[in-house]
Amino acid sequence: MSAPALLAPAPLARAKAVIETLAGNNFDGLRNQQVANAIRASASTTLRTLEALEAVGWAERIPGKDERWRLSPRLIQLAIAHNAEVAREEQQLDDFRNRYSRIPT
Predict the structure, then answer these.
(1) How far apart are CA 98 and CA 18, in angstroms?
(2) pTM, whole model, 2 decimals?
(3) pLDDT of residue 7
(4) Is residue 61 one of the residues assigned to a domain?
C-alpha cells in the first residue's frame, strides 16, 4: 500500500505557482494581473502572495516599474548554487568512473 500523497496548503501551492510563473520573466517582469491570470487567482490574492514573497526576499518589484514583478536575485542565487553543487557532484562521479575504469598496465 502506498503512502497517501501530501497536499501543499493553498498559500504554499499558490506561492509555488507564482514563482514558476515569474521564472523566465526577470528582464521585463510581469504585472500582478498577468500573474493572477496565469495562476487562476484573484488579483488581490496574487498581490498578497507577491508581497509575501517580497517580504522573504524571493520576489521584487522592478525599480522604476513598480507595477511589474520578477524573481529576486536571492532566489536566482539559490538556483545557481544548486547548479554549482550538481556540477561538483558530476565531476566527482566522473573522477570515480575514470579511476575505476582504467585497465592496469
Answers:
(1) 43
(2) 0.74
(3) 64
(4) yes
